[in-house]
Structures are given as C-alpha cells and as structure tokens.
Design brief:
This protein has helices at 2-45, 77-88, 110-120, 123-131, 134-142, 182-190, 234-244, 259-273, 291-308, 357-367, 376-386, 424-436, 438-441, 455-462, and strands at 150-152, 171-176, 196-199, 212-223, 247-253, 279-284, 287-289, 315-317, 319-320, 347-348, 352-356, 392-393, 397-398, 418-420. By secondary structure, the chain is an alpha/beta fold. The chain has two domains: 77-142, no CATH class; 150-462, Spore Coat Polysaccharide Biosynthesis Protein SpsA, Chain A (Alpha-Beta Complex). The strands form three sheets. Strands 1, 2, 3, 4, 5, 6, 8, 11 and 12 form a nine-stranded mixed sheet that branches. Strands 7-14-13 form a three-stranded mixed sheet, with no helix packed on it. The radius of gyration is 26 Å and the shape is globular. The structure holds 2-acetamido-2-deoxy-beta-D-glucopyranose (NAG) (4 copies).
Length: 463
C-alpha cells in the first residue's frame, strides 16, 4: 500500500512538474504582455481624438510589440536598422528605461550611427543594397547625414511678419517649395498665405466681430537638383528673401527622396527659433487653403485643447491607414521589399496638415531615434507612432482633391480647409471666387465625416 502511494506520488510529480512550469511561464508571459499594454494604453488615455475608421487595429508595422518576434522582417534594410533602436527602447526588454514619460527625448543621434554601422556590415544587407534601385542607393548613402548648413533664413525671427504682434501667433505656414517655383510662391503670398493679422470666418451670427489670429509664413527649400541650370538662383533667392523675409534654405539637393530631410531640418530650426507659435500648417506649394476657416478652426481647437491639455499630441489632416509600400517599379514611390516590409503606420497626407508647435518640438526630439525614410509623410507617421500619438482625420483636408464633381458646386471651396494640386493661376482665381461668394456661402459648414471618401479610395488615389 505504501509503495503504491509512493509510485502514485512519483507519477503525480512527473505529470505535474511540467504543468506547473507551463503555468508559471504563461503567467510570466501574461504579466509581461499586460505591462506592455498598460504602457501604451496609459499614454493613449490623454488623447481625445481618434481618427475615425482608422483606429489602431493591430496591423501597424514596424514597432515591435512582442519580444519573441525578434527576427520578424529582419531581411528588410530599414526595418533592420530601426529594429536595433526600437529594441533598445522596448519596455519589455528594458523595463527601467521606460519609466520617464518620453525616454527617447534625451538621446542624441549617436544611436542612429551605431545601428547603421551594425547593420551595414551584415552580408545579407550588403546584398540587399546592391540590388536597390539607384535612387534608393543614393538615399541610403546619405541617410545618416542631417547636419546640412542653412543658406538663407528669415532674419533672426520665426517666419515673415513677426513685428507688431500683440499676442502669440496662431499659425506658421511652412510651405515646401523649390528654387524655381517663384510663381507658386508669389501666388501664395498674394492669396491664402498673407501674413499678419488675419480674420477668421465671418458668419451672420457673429455681430460682435470675428475672431482672428496672427499668421506667419516660411518657405522651405533645398538647392535645385539640376547641373544644367544655366543661372545660379542664389542671388535671386537672396533678393526675394530680403523683400519678403520668408525664405529658409538649406544646402542639400532638393530631390523627392530628400523631402524627409526638409521636415527634420524644419523641426530643428523651429525648435531653436520659434517659441510662441501655437500651430504649424505644413504643406506643398500647390495647395489651396481656406485661410479664414482654418483660422476659426484653429481658434476653436486652441480653446478645446488648452482646456484638455492635449495640444502636445495635436496633428490633423487627411489620415491614411493601413497603407502598403508601393511595389510598382516605375512609380516614384517605389519601395522594394528588401528595403521596407510591412504596413506603413497611420499618417496624414503630406500635401497639407496641421500640427501644434509643441508637437513639432517633440517630433524633432524623437526623430533623433528614427532613421530617415525616403517618403516624407510616412516618416511623420513613423515618428508619431513612436510618440504614442495618433493623427486626427478631418474630411475638410482634401489631399486627393474633391470626389467626383463636388468641386464645381458654388460653395464647395467654403466647405474645406485645404485642397491639393492647384496651379498658381487656379489659386489666384479661386481666391477671388471665394471673396465673391463670401456672402452667399458664409454659413455653409465644413465637410464632415458622412461625405468622407473611405480609406481604400484614398489609398487607390495615393498611388
Ligand atoms: C484595419 O483597418 C483597415 C482600414 O483602416 C482595414 O482594411 C483592415 O481590414 C483592418 N484590420 C483588421 C484586422 O480589422
Ligand atoms: C527635447 O529634448 C531636449 C533635450 O533633451 C529637452 O530639453 C526638451 O525638453 C525636449 N522637448 C520636448 C518638447 O520634449
Ligand atoms: C446669412 O446671410 C445671407 C445673406 O445675407 C443669407 O443668404 C443666408 O440665408 C443667411 N444665413 C443664415 C443661416 O441666416
Ligand atoms: C540629398 O542631398 C544630398 C546633399 O546635397 C545629396 O548628396 C544626396 O544625393 C541627396 N539624396 C537623394 C536621395 O537625392
């Protein structure tokens, strides 16, 4: 009887030990996963907006969520580079480092150099590099360099028209342009890009006068990428700068794949020179803006956000979710899967978006730990996801133009904040139309969610 008992105990031990071990392991994993989730959830609690229809549903690459997928995507060049850094900040692998609210902000860009050196000596990465298209190879060659000198900048101030302001400027218009696009700059200066005090939207109801705000402007430029350009543009540009005070130019080649550089260098300049700007509108030089409505919209956001203290995450535009890299070799957006794998994170279309001055400074800090990516608006999304901030979708930003013929209706331009792709001539005549239809259309509301085209349409339009 005693022996039987003993054997039973042995069997029990044999069977139970692995079970207990397994249970402990499961508990361990569960606790770790929970810890990770609380970290992300806590930082999202203070968000009051979520981009409709584009909520984080788990399909976002490339931020690693779990520690056991160590080799996921490791055969793509950019993912590999960034993984080295993201693992360094992973709350599970390094729980202590994540105690501070923004653990990445105090890090210099030395980490980028380290990961670059570590990855580029790998055999498979060298092989990848050899097969990249020329443009990507060129990008990779220079993706480490960010310290390009400023050639021309507004005279010691943050954008044109800093004088005679009686309160902090509401918005800085930061517009990406190139040396040769003088005509576009002129159209913008005459129309929606006027600086100084600008009135908000007029309505029938506002008898006690309309709200307004101070507007400043800066154009962002590199050097023209054209060796055959017969004349040197720099003298022209200096004269232009003296006259308008709104030119900010760096000494790098103004190519499509260098546009990300423009964002990062702008954030850097902004962090140093601009203290009191509430919002930044960042856009291309071929957009049309309904400035009075934008002013009114931003005033209302300012009231709301200051009350809720959420300005530091504020970014709004036409948000694109679950986008995939373009794999069509002839496209100017082509990204080989040996360079980047996975979805892109949520990002607002780069044609025109608005974010807070505070966020610009945080973006600058975080960008020191995010490798440059050839597509500028995607890079903004990559920085945002690492700040645990979500861009807000607003249907009044039309980076892909009006759906169908909606743009031809009398008041259609009064229902938007921004529309992409207009020539200088169109900008001038649209602006005149807006003044002409002002009285008839002044009370039409902004486009809202029900008129929104869905995410898939936007994706198709994007590529
Ligand atoms: C995530 O959202 C996108 C669109 O935003 C959708 O296409 C996709 O099916 C969603 N994925 C899941 C798992 O729900
Ligand atoms: C950015 O980093 C600098 C240096 O670490 C820090 O002083 C500053 O507060 C940070 N700014 C923001 C907005 O996080
Ligand atoms: C506002 O005024 C215009 C012209 O005076 C008028 O046509 C329109 O109906 C008014 N709108 C409202 C909501 O009162
Ligand atoms: C970016 O600018 C640098 C500096 O002018 C230039 O050497 C490099 O070729 C440019 N990169 C791309 C991808 O065009």
């Amino acid at each position: 009887m005693a022996r039987r008992c003993c054997r039973l105990r042995n069997i029990l031990i044999c069977v139970c030990t692995p079970c207990v071990c397994l249970a402990l392991l499961i508990i361990y994993v569960a606790v770790m996963v929970c810890l990770n989730m609380t970290v992300t959830m806590n930082s999202q609690l203070d968000l009051h907006f979520v981009a409709p229809g584009n909520v984080n549903n788990g399909s976002f690459a490339p931020l690693p969520k779990t520690f056991w997928k160590h080799h996921l995507d490791s055969d793509a060049f950019w993912n590999q580079l960034q993984q080295v850094i993201d693992y360094d900040f992973n709350p599970i692998l390094h729980p202590r480092r994540n105690k501070a609210r923004s653990p990445r902000s105090s890090v210099g860009d030395s980490l980028l150099g380290q990961s670059f050196a570590q990855v580029t000596i790998m055999d498979n990465m060298r092989k990848n590099f050899e097969h990249f298209p020329k443009q990507i190879q060129e990008f990779v060659r220079y993706m480490q360099k960010r310290n390009y000198p400023i050639l021309i900048q507004p005279d010691g101030v943050c954008g044109a028209k800093a004088k005679e302001e009686r309160e902090p400027p509401l918005v800085l218009l930061a517009i990406k342009t190139t040396e040769c696009n003088l005509k576009k700059r002129q159209a913008i200066r005459q129309t929606w890009g006027r600086v100084g005090w600008v009135e908000g939207q007029k309505t029938n109801r506002s008898s006690e006068g309309v709200l307004g705000g101070y507007v400043r402007r800066v154009f962002l430029l590199g050097k023209e990428d054209n060796d055959q350009l017969s004349m040197d543009m720099s003298d022209f540009l200096k004269t232009e700068s003296k006259h308008y005070g709104d030119i900010l130019q760096w000494d790098f080649k103004d190519t499509f794949f260098n546009l990300t550089l423009k964002d990062v260098l702008f954030w850097s300049w902004f962090s140093r020179h601009c203290n009191r700007i509430h919002f930044i509108f960042k856009g291309d030089d071929d957009v049309f803006i309904n400035t009075p409505k934008l002013i009114t919209y931003l005033q209302s956001q300012l009231e709301k956000s200051q009350a809720l203290n959420t300005l530091e995450d504020f970014m709004v535009g036409e948000v694109i979710g679950s986008a995939k890299p373009n794999r069509v070799k002839s496209s100017k957006y082509f990204i080989p899967d040996t360079f980047y794998k996975g979805f892109y994170p949520l990002y607002p279309g780069g044609g025109g978006l608005v974010y807070s001055g505070l966020l610009a400074k945080r973006l600058y800090n975080i960008s020191k730990t995010v490798h440059l990516f050839p597509i500028d608006d995607v890079y903004v999304g990559m920085c945002m996801i690492r700040l645990h901030a979500l861009p807000v979708h607003n249907p009044a930003f039309l980076t892909f133009d009006f759906p169908k013929n909606e743009g031809e209706e009398l008041c259609s331009y009064h229902t938007i904040l921004m529309v992409h792709k207009r020539t200088p001539e169109q900008i001038v005549s649209l602006w005149a139309d807006m003044q002409r239809t002002q009285r008839q259309c002044q009370d039409v509301p902004l486009r809202s969610a029900d008129k929104k085209i869905n995410a898939e349409d936007r994706l198709v339009a994007a590529f």
